Protein backbone atom coordinates (compact mmCIF):
# COMPACT_ATOMS: atom_id res chain seq x y z
CA UNK A 1 0.00 0.00 0.00
CA UNK A 2 1.32 3.46 -0.88
CA UNK A 3 1.25 6.45 1.40
CA UNK A 4 -1.28 9.26 1.02
CA UNK A 5 -1.68 9.11 -2.73
CA UNK A 6 -3.15 5.67 -3.32
CA UNK A 7 -4.90 2.98 -1.32
CA UNK A 8 -5.05 -0.78 -1.83
CA UNK A 9 -8.24 -2.60 -0.95
CA UNK A 10 -8.39 -5.89 0.93
CA UNK A 11 -10.92 -7.73 3.02
CA UNK A 12 -14.68 -7.33 3.32
CA UNK A 13 -16.68 -4.27 4.37
CA UNK A 14 -19.88 -5.88 5.52
CA UNK A 15 -19.88 -9.40 6.91
CA UNK A 16 -23.37 -10.21 5.67
CA UNK A 17 -24.25 -9.35 2.07
CA UNK A 18 -21.76 -6.64 1.15
CA UNK A 19 -17.99 -6.70 0.70
CA UNK A 20 -15.12 -4.28 1.31
CA UNK A 21 -15.18 -0.82 -0.19
CA UNK A 22 -12.71 2.02 -0.29
CA UNK A 23 -13.28 5.75 0.08
CA UNK A 24 -10.88 8.12 -1.63
CA UNK A 25 -11.27 11.85 -1.06
CA UNK A 26 -12.56 14.12 -3.92
CA UNK A 27 -12.89 18.01 -4.07
CA UNK A 28 -33.24 15.87 10.29
CA UNK A 29 -36.08 17.55 9.99
CA UNK A 30 -38.74 19.89 11.08
CA UNK A 31 -39.98 22.53 8.69
CA UNK A 32 -39.54 22.79 4.92
CA UNK A 33 -36.30 21.09 3.83
CA UNK A 34 -36.28 23.06 0.60
CA UNK A 35 -35.30 21.64 -2.79
CA UNK A 36 -32.83 18.79 -3.15
CA UNK A 37 -29.24 19.58 -4.00
CA UNK A 38 -26.37 17.61 -5.53
CA UNK A 39 -23.79 19.90 -3.90
CA UNK A 40 -20.51 18.15 -3.22
CA UNK A 41 -21.26 15.46 -5.82
CA UNK A 42 -19.02 14.18 -8.59
CA UNK A 43 -19.13 11.44 -11.22
CA UNK A 44 -16.31 8.95 -10.60
CA UNK A 45 -16.24 5.78 -12.74
CA UNK A 46 -17.88 5.95 -16.16
CA UNK A 47 -21.47 4.73 -16.10
CA UNK A 48 -22.87 2.51 -18.89
CA UNK A 49 -23.85 4.34 -22.06
CA UNK A 50 -27.10 6.25 -21.61
CA UNK A 51 -26.95 6.12 -17.79
CA UNK A 52 -26.49 9.26 -15.69
CA UNK A 53 -26.66 8.65 -11.94
CA UNK A 54 -26.63 11.28 -9.21
CA UNK A 55 -27.93 11.95 -5.70
CA UNK A 56 -29.75 14.72 -3.87
CA UNK A 57 -29.74 15.89 -0.26
CA UNK A 58 -32.06 18.52 1.26
CA UNK A 59 -30.62 22.02 1.26
CA UNK A 60 -31.85 22.48 4.82
CA UNK A 61 -32.44 20.21 7.80
CA UNK A 62 -33.42 20.96 11.40
CA UNK A 63 -31.98 19.42 14.56
CA UNK A 64 -34.02 19.12 17.74
CA UNK A 65 -31.90 20.79 20.42
CA UNK A 66 -33.13 18.40 23.13
CA UNK A 67 -32.99 15.00 21.42
CA UNK A 68 -30.43 15.97 18.74
CA UNK A 69 -32.55 14.05 16.26
CA UNK A 70 -32.94 15.02 12.63
CA UNK A 71 -34.35 13.52 9.44
CA UNK A 72 -32.72 13.59 6.03
CA UNK A 73 -34.07 12.47 2.65
CA UNK A 74 -31.40 10.84 0.45
CA UNK A 75 -32.41 10.51 -3.20
CA UNK A 76 -30.68 8.60 -6.00
CA UNK A 77 -31.77 9.31 -9.57
CA UNK A 78 -31.06 8.30 -13.17
CA UNK A 79 -31.20 11.27 -15.50
CA UNK A 80 -30.06 9.19 -18.46
CA UNK A 81 -31.92 7.61 -21.37
CA UNK A 82 -31.37 3.95 -20.38
CA UNK A 83 -31.92 1.82 -17.28
CA UNK A 84 -29.14 1.93 -14.71
CA UNK A 85 -28.66 -1.78 -14.18
CA UNK A 86 -28.45 -3.11 -10.62
CA UNK A 87 -27.02 -0.39 -8.34
CA UNK A 88 -26.77 0.35 -4.63
CA UNK A 89 -26.58 3.50 -2.50
CA UNK A 90 -24.39 3.90 0.59
CA UNK A 91 -25.26 6.43 3.32
CA UNK A 92 -22.38 7.20 5.70
CA UNK A 93 -22.14 9.67 8.60
CA UNK A 94 -19.01 11.47 9.78
CA UNK A 95 -18.02 13.45 12.85
CA UNK A 96 -21.06 14.96 14.60
CA UNK A 97 -23.61 13.47 12.17
CA UNK A 98 -24.54 9.87 13.06
CA UNK A 99 -26.82 7.85 10.79
CA UNK A 100 -29.16 5.81 13.01
CA UNK A 101 -31.42 4.21 10.41
CA UNK A 102 -32.15 4.17 6.70
CA UNK A 103 -35.46 2.59 5.72
CA UNK A 104 -34.97 -0.62 3.72
CA UNK A 105 -31.19 -0.67 4.15
CA UNK A 106 -28.61 -2.73 6.07
CA UNK A 107 -26.26 -1.28 8.69
CA UNK A 108 -22.52 -1.43 8.07
CA UNK A 109 -20.74 -2.98 11.07
CA UNK A 110 -18.90 -0.40 13.17
CA UNK A 111 -15.67 -2.40 12.99
CA UNK A 112 -15.77 -2.11 9.21
CA UNK A 113 -16.09 1.67 9.14
CA UNK A 114 -13.03 3.84 8.46
CA UNK A 115 -11.70 6.22 11.07
CA UNK A 116 -13.82 9.37 10.99
CA UNK A 117 -16.95 7.55 9.83
CA UNK A 118 -19.21 6.73 12.76
CA UNK A 119 -22.09 5.00 10.97
CA UNK A 120 -23.21 3.71 7.60
CA UNK A 121 -25.97 1.88 5.74
CA UNK A 122 -26.02 0.02 2.41
CA UNK A 123 -29.18 0.26 0.30
CA UNK A 124 -29.94 -2.16 -2.57
CA UNK A 125 -31.53 0.20 -5.09
CA UNK A 126 -31.93 -2.31 -7.93
CA UNK A 127 -32.45 -0.93 -11.42
CA UNK A 128 -33.53 2.66 -11.97
CA UNK A 129 -35.35 3.24 -15.22
CA UNK A 130 -34.44 6.27 -17.33
CA UNK A 131 -35.77 9.37 -15.59
CA UNK A 132 -36.60 7.47 -12.39
CA UNK A 133 -35.51 8.22 -8.83
CA UNK A 134 -35.73 6.54 -5.44
CA UNK A 135 -35.69 8.26 -2.06
CA UNK A 136 -34.70 6.92 1.36
CA UNK A 137 -35.75 8.24 4.76
CA UNK A 138 -32.61 8.70 6.85
CA UNK A 139 -32.93 8.99 10.63
CA UNK A 140 -29.90 10.62 12.22
CA UNK A 141 -28.60 12.57 15.17
CA UNK A 142 -26.45 15.69 14.93
CA UNK A 143 -24.18 16.98 17.68
CA UNK A 144 -24.47 20.73 17.12
CA UNK A 145 -21.28 21.20 19.14
CA UNK A 146 -19.31 19.60 16.33
CA UNK A 147 -19.00 19.56 12.55
CA UNK A 148 -21.08 16.91 10.80
CA UNK A 149 -20.85 15.41 7.32
CA UNK A 150 -22.66 12.84 5.19
CA UNK A 151 -21.57 10.87 2.12
CA UNK A 152 -23.71 9.23 -0.60
CA UNK A 153 -21.84 6.99 -3.07
CA UNK A 154 -23.79 5.23 -5.85
CA UNK A 155 -22.17 1.97 -6.92
CA UNK A 156 -22.66 -1.03 -9.12
CA UNK A 157 -24.34 -3.81 -7.14
CA UNK A 158 -21.02 -5.63 -6.66
CA UNK A 159 -19.30 -2.43 -5.56
CA UNK A 160 -16.62 -2.66 -8.24
CA UNK A 161 -17.51 0.76 -9.66
CA UNK A 162 -18.64 4.04 -8.13
CA UNK A 163 -20.67 5.97 -10.67
CA UNK A 164 -21.33 9.00 -8.47
CA UNK A 165 -20.44 10.23 -5.02
CA UNK A 166 -21.88 13.15 -3.07
CA UNK A 167 -19.70 14.21 -0.19
CA UNK A 168 -18.65 13.91 2.43
CA UNK A 169 -20.56 17.19 2.45
CA UNK A 170 -21.23 19.14 5.67
CA UNK A 171 -24.43 20.37 7.23
CA UNK A 172 -24.09 23.28 9.61
CA UNK A 173 -24.90 26.81 10.73
CA UNK A 174 -22.84 29.93 11.31
CA UNK A 175 -25.58 31.28 13.62
CA UNK A 176 -26.12 28.76 16.46
CA UNK A 177 -29.41 28.87 18.38
CA UNK A 178 -28.85 26.72 21.52
CA UNK A 179 -31.86 28.19 23.36
CA UNK A 180 -34.29 27.58 20.50
CA UNK A 181 -36.31 24.35 20.18
CA UNK A 182 -34.40 23.44 17.02
CA UNK A 183 -31.34 24.50 15.05
CA UNK A 184 -31.65 24.82 11.25
CA UNK A 185 -28.62 23.54 9.34
CA UNK A 186 -27.70 24.27 5.73
CA UNK A 187 -26.06 21.87 3.29
CA UNK A 188 -22.49 22.78 2.40
CA UNK A 189 -21.97 24.84 5.56
CA UNK A 190 -19.37 24.04 8.22
CA UNK A 191 -21.02 24.04 11.62
CA UNK A 192 -20.13 26.73 14.17
CA UNK A 193 -21.02 25.54 17.68
CA UNK A 194 -22.48 27.90 20.28
CA UNK A 195 -20.15 26.54 22.98
CA UNK A 196 -16.95 28.44 23.90
CA UNK A 197 -13.99 27.45 21.78
CA UNK A 198 -16.18 26.67 18.80
CA UNK A 199 -13.61 28.21 16.52
CA UNK A 200 -11.22 25.40 17.43
CA UNK A 201 -13.12 22.52 15.84
CA UNK A 202 -11.11 19.56 14.54
CA UNK A 203 -10.28 20.10 10.88
CA UNK A 204 -10.11 17.50 8.13
CA UNK A 205 -6.74 17.30 6.41
CA UNK A 206 -4.61 14.87 4.42
CA UNK A 207 -4.42 11.56 6.27
CA UNK A 208 -4.46 7.82 5.75
CA UNK A 209 -7.36 6.39 7.74
CA UNK A 210 -7.39 2.59 8.22
CA UNK A 211 -10.49 0.45 8.05
CA UNK A 212 -11.05 -1.84 11.03
CA UNK A 213 -11.08 -5.63 10.92
CA UNK A 214 -12.05 -5.49 7.24
CA UNK A 215 -8.42 -4.73 6.41
CA UNK A 216 -9.29 -2.09 3.81
CA UNK A 217 -8.13 1.51 4.01
CA UNK A 218 -9.48 5.04 3.69
CA UNK A 219 -7.41 7.85 2.32
CA UNK A 220 -8.56 11.44 2.71
CA UNK A 221 -6.88 13.94 0.41
CA UNK A 222 -7.73 17.50 1.44
CA UNK A 223 -11.44 18.28 1.82
CA UNK A 224 -12.69 17.81 -1.74
CA UNK A 225 -14.68 14.55 -1.20
CA UNK A 226 -14.54 10.75 -1.39
CA UNK A 227 -14.48 7.91 -3.89
CA UNK A 228 -15.73 4.48 -3.06
CA UNK A 229 -14.93 1.17 -4.82
CA UNK A 230 -15.20 -2.45 -3.70
CA UNK A 231 -13.87 -5.91 -4.47
CA UNK A 232 -15.69 -9.06 -3.37
CA UNK A 233 -13.74 -11.48 -1.17
CA UNK A 234 -13.21 -14.99 -2.65
CA UNK A 235 -16.16 -17.29 -2.25
CA UNK A 236 -18.74 -14.53 -1.60
CA UNK A 237 -21.54 -13.48 -3.85
CA UNK A 238 -22.58 -9.84 -4.29
Describe the structure.
Helix content is 0%, strand content 45%. It has no helices and 17 strands. The strands form four sheets. Strands 3, 5, 7, 9, 10, 12, 13 and 14 form an eight-stranded antiparallel β-sheet that branches. The chain is elongated, with a radius of gyration of 17 Å.
Q: Whole-Å distance between the termini?
A: 25 Å
Structural class: mainly beta
Task: Specify Rg, calculated over alpha carbons.
Answer: 17 Å
Q: Based on the structure, what is the oligomeric state of the protein chains?
A: single chain
Sketch the topology as an H/E string, one letter per element.
EEEEEEEEEEEEEEEEE
Largest sheet properties: 8 strands, antiparallel
Percentage of β-strand residues? 35-45%
- Counting DSSP E segments of at least 2 residues, the number of strands comes to 17
* Proportion of helical residues: under 10%
The general outline is elongated
- Structure annotation, total helices: 0
The unreliable regions are 1-33, 197-226, 228-233
Mean pLDDT across the residues is: 76
Amino acid sequence: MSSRGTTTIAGSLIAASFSAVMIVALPAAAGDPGPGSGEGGKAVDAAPAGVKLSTLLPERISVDNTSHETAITATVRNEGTKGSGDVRLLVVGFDGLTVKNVAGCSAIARKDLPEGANSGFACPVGELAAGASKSYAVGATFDTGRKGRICLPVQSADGSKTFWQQGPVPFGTTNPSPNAPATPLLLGTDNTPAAPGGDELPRTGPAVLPWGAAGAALIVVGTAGLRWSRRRPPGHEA
